[in-house]
């Protein structure tokens, strides 16, 4: 059985004292072994990054960007293989993996604009004959810690921008699906990245804690669940590191009485069940304003869900695949059951889907639950499964209050045709990413991604313009030149 | 004896269960009493800020800025009174207080540009008929905690920008010199600020800890010493607050052999002894490259220091005044003595200055110490007094290594006439604010202020463009309008 | 009778070989004489501006901005007097003059942000150890030529930004109402502007042609009618000058069937008749989609127009005042009559208003004309009077076609509650300034003002960010420092 | 013999009523025929661009940019062939053609950042519940007219940015060397550009005049000589088009007494003789401050010129190749002779170079002329050949005066080691592109290219950020949503 190792200083290292199983969630079987990095391994990666830093920092941004251009080419050329690796270890269907990869590539495209993005601010005559300018200099060695649900995209949110800004990087991806991460990292080396600029270590908390405590790490980017995000942020901050840590979500859609209901339902099906709901931007709660809207929603939704197809990653006709682990499957099923027990109405029950030939896979089918209330466990926590909760309220204000009262503030959307309702909602809702008739308002690569409240810890959002600020620090120079006589002196030296 | 109170919801409150003496450092006498805020008092201020927030947030930025324009007028009109209040409680001579105030006013001027500074980013056709934009929304209630050494300027670094961005504010200034702070805050109300938008509470650690723990406070800005800055940053971060905490400094000037030595010496005298060295940007170490430069520096410096005049704040012919407290005076004297004991050469000794008529004032005279080495106590710690250390090295590289090895990275400068040396220095030195022949490279109000290493905790610097980012959070909206038939429908309703 | 002169090099000059009458349009009487500048007078103004340029250019932007801050104060303090001067010579009622002045002041506020607005772009390591930056340097002496209809506002669109960018300025305002212009220019001097930086010359085509041909003038800003704008632009361009020339308008409002009709009618009354329609952003055509909307519009509009009050500038209860000249009054009346003759329906006829006690004033009352078609003279030309044309179409597309087919493309708006209609309209309409339920979509001072098609000649719009670009030119510097041995040399000079 | 045609609507069209010879300047022989576009041909190209515009305008910028990414790949993959085509028709040696192409590709890289570059400005609450934003919309069909000297680079300055901004394009390249232009344009189609978005017409004044007069052309970019630039600018402006027209140059280098002379000489050799001096940024005048500097310069320069190798494009060991035509060769020789006749000292004479085997080629060798004065013909006019003039002055001020007195203001540089001299020079010199120890200060692709004085007609420079502004127009939208009852109504419809 193949052992997946680390990529340190441009070289794959598969030696390991500890290993862990990697599963194929579609079949439920172990497919590979993962080497888990010990402290010395992580320190070797940091040392490689540290050694590569001085030369990389002094490489002109334009040259750094040229490597990103080639990286984009290689990602596109190898897209099918990347998607296959993602599917095998994550369970995602190819069309979904391709969507994820495409989003990741768009972050690489954004990084190609580094020369423009890194421009500083120049002030002539800040004082008499005094100029002042601010540069945005790289930080040094920075780290990224990424989750299982977007093995290609989330690392690509981080290191292309970090690297193109002049930093060197140590990435610790999810231990569930490291293969696409390593494959992509090797493509970046093929594109011309010098060894040591990007290093990948696989591991668990032991590896993470080295990254959080080693003084050579200047900054940490994290995406995962809120409790871990909070731990990462607090620990990294206390250790003097810059940190941005993105956590969990509970994304609500408000369905207004004037919404185009067919559109809304189509949008919700994709946004709730796509990737089995294992997305931090998945729409997991639909809040219908008025029973009329709620009834129409439930009716059209349950009708449309009849054609939903769950199954193995390898069949492209499937809509979505298995969950990531047996444990997670059981947890999701538990949430559904708790909803039923706590009084909600189970309209479509996906707890026991039949997936012919894959009975050991970690599947849960699309599930629709009506009459959910704010005190239910299924509402208070993030399910991260293909489960859509429906809540009924009497007014838009009530719907907004629900959203603002929730712990998370990642994404939200409203379905309406009315300009005023949309503007009021987007202005006032305490959520960082807002859709107006757009169910998954993931910002495009040239805006930045970030939730509010306990969905993000830190000042600056992920990718886009904020990433430039996160991965650089401001240096302000104030300059005055005293005369050395060269200019005036010359006038006297050579009289006519 | 007058008791200084709090400004909460537009009203002065002087009731207090605990009070503390306020001294006039020039005379060494107690002049006023300060009410120390209890937890309920701080909470009342937070509540006032919270109540004022919704209306203030919805006030157009242009209207908010108009109040800043009037505030600037009032600051200028009342400049003499402000400087008198500063002098009385801080000991700063009027010309120095005026300089501080002027810098503060320039931050108010910058805040007047809010409508431009708050512009978001708009992307037409992020997708087909989909628009996306990012807004920079205020955070809510934010807090500022400020030091004694710039009672007018440092608060003005914070709340004008915070407020003009739509936040409401609770300020806890230094307990040493609160009078100018309160006077200025009242001017802002006179300029039209609604009650509750800016609140000032005086107090000590009890007040600070409420600000760090109360869930209604969204962000904390701090300026002070590094140990406190670290405590503030770690605590506020752990409590889920955005935080920027500026700490101590040890600012080095490199004197290159080709420097214009007369210019350099003049610059150093002001930068080392101005405001008794109680500035986080004070130049406290001169690193001379080569003995020739060092000898010239010592010789010219000690000559020029003969005319330095230390004395009471009320005499404008004085160059600088007393230190802030008796305890601090003794601490500075202790540093000077330790230097002597550890082998440095005391060239000019300011430990016992004569200030006729003010023998109880907290004075230390200008002090010049040669042959300082990196292991001495006076070098390792921030003295915050009128003491200039001179170190001798053999190369620019050695000088830069000294600077980079020091715990702090606030400001630094180089004196040279050579373009290449200046560019190499400013590019590579690990310090946030760099001067080239400029001894106090404090960024102008439209750049941002911030040190590196342990001189600043947080991602974003103080004032200037970074303040806009610190005091706002990004919200990204993605919008698609489904047809409601209004546009096309009309075509069919009224056929020709 | 008082003679109004020029302001050259900080001094008023009233000598003149030629003069012209200035009227009070409310009474129809001559009230003052205007000195008309000869070629030598204009050249003296240019020479003063040229002489003032070098010192002004080198004055730090922050210092230049400080004068603008004081200018704003003085404008506010003297607002009543300014409005009185405007009213006397233009006929505008005080509330309208105050609105104009307020908009002008907001341009001064924007100019106060010069230090931020003038920041250049800095690129570290454009190549190895090569830095490159772009500065935005002033042009030199620039000129402005402004119309009668906004004597305070339009000049304030121009010279505050031009001057704060480091240029010096020659202004030739309208010969109809120069008094407020001169008064305001003197306030700017009172605010601290050095003599020669702003010069005002009064005159006619003789003066204009000097400004268009003199080689010392680097750029010309113009606001007026389209034929003159075209002449100015073509001539100035052919003479190698930078030019922006804003011309005429025919601003349409589309009234959709779903519009909030009461809101729309209120908005239209102000936008069509305010300032007697003598605004380049006046709404002069309402295009109703469907007869139902049209009938409702006509009915509500004619009802609301009953309370419209036209009269002398000195009575603040009037809604609007006289037209600027007898000739213009007759021209507007002629347009109304032509509409009637060409088959339109005259719903409300303002040709003979009664203004008790002012029977020689140049008054025209609010006029509403229905069933206007695209071939009528009143539609093809800009009326610049208190006349609202109503057109009836069957679809939004037809309404948009009308707008796009018109020669002008200054402003337009749509009244609808529908997000999709608004987005389609604003995206596709060939007009530079678009309102969505906003009848006068004049951009705020921190956006820029400019029409499309034959409403503006030039690349860059007036005021706001575009003004910074118009009044500066880019200089790009690329810098590499060869070693002079200072940095490395020192290492060898002083071996340890 | 092959006939080179046009590329219209994605198809090559070689039919022509008129043709013109294309030469191989290295051999002096005719190698191809060029079809010259008649008015109907140009109109067909415009019509194709017009037809392609609506769909292209609505293509999201991200999708437009993706084509630019693929274009870059194809340019790199086909670089050798492009350089061969350039060499054959221009005479440029492969290393020089590769340099040109590389610069062109960097403009394509910049265009890949379109989604970031096209961001508009968004203002929430410009008024109460009123939002306002500015979009940068494409212009429509725009044209480019480009010179022979950079057949690959200059067109790539223009159409990638124009197209990525949403415009469609008609390019008229130089009639001397159209083959690389067409080949590159076909690569862009291979990259996925829809037909009609980019059209190439070959021709002469007949074609140009159609582009300048046809009402469908919204803007014209031109690079060429100053007299033609002025004609283009004046004509296009008078016809209501936006225009930027870049003209000639006379680029001076100041050699200060403290310059690193070896560096300076190496830099000058490349900058004066590279590409036979047929560059608008060629350094054609060296101004030495003081005779000592001048003598050293002449001595080292003439020494280094001994190894200069002129010859056919096909031999990569050559330093530079022939001039573009026989006529131009004779013109350059004439300038050299005139210098001699007017009293200058011909130090190195390149009038009769020997190029074995290519005696009919249009060669001129590297030429160095000392003691040139400002009244000589060779100084007043642009030579555009491998000729370096040396002038001797007594002071830096005198050198700067020479530069400022010259008609052109394209590029300039100074060689010095002194910070103060460099800063004074770059601040004050009336030239748009300034080098400090950089002989060819061509801005990188993410800054903009443009001279001052008669070297550029128009407000905005070529490529970089200015190109975004040149190829778009600002539209400002102001939006207020009246309540349609959807938001509040819902509260009342469903009471609890």
TrEMBL record, chains A, B, C, D:
<feature type="domain" description="Aldehyde dehydrogenase">
    <location>
        <begin position="16"/>
        <end position="477"/>
    </location>
</feature>
<dbReference type="InterPro" id="IPR016162">
    <property type="entry name" value="Ald_DH_N"/>
</dbReference>
<dbReference type="InterPro" id="IPR016160">
    <property type="entry name" value="Ald_DH_CS_CYS"/>
</dbReference>
<keyword id="KW-0560">Oxidoreductase</keyword>
<protein>
    <recommendedName>
        <fullName>methylmalonate-semialdehyde dehydrogenase (CoA acylating)</fullName>
        <ecNumber>1.2.1.27</ecNumber>
    </recommendedName>
</protein>
<dbReference type="InterPro" id="IPR016163">
    <property type="entry name" value="Ald_DH_C"/>
</dbReference>
<dbReference type="InterPro" id="IPR015590">
    <property type="entry name" value="Aldehyde_DH_dom"/>
</dbReference>
<dbReference type="InterPro" id="IPR010061">
    <property type="entry name" value="MeMal-semiAld_DH"/>
</dbReference>
<dbReference type="Pfam" id="PF00171">
    <property type="entry name" value="Aldedh"/>
</dbReference>
<dbReference type="GO" id="GO:0004491">
    <property type="term" value="F:methylmalonate-semialdehyde dehydrogenase (acylating, NAD) activity"/>
</dbReference>
<dbReference type="GO" id="GO:0006210">
    <property type="term" value="P:thymine catabolic process"/>
</dbReference>
<keyword id="KW-0520">NAD</keyword>
<dbReference type="InterPro" id="IPR016161">
    <property type="entry name" value="Ald_DH/histidinol_DH"/>
</dbReference>
<dbReference type="GO" id="GO:0006574">
    <property type="term" value="P:L-valine catabolic process"/>
</dbReference>
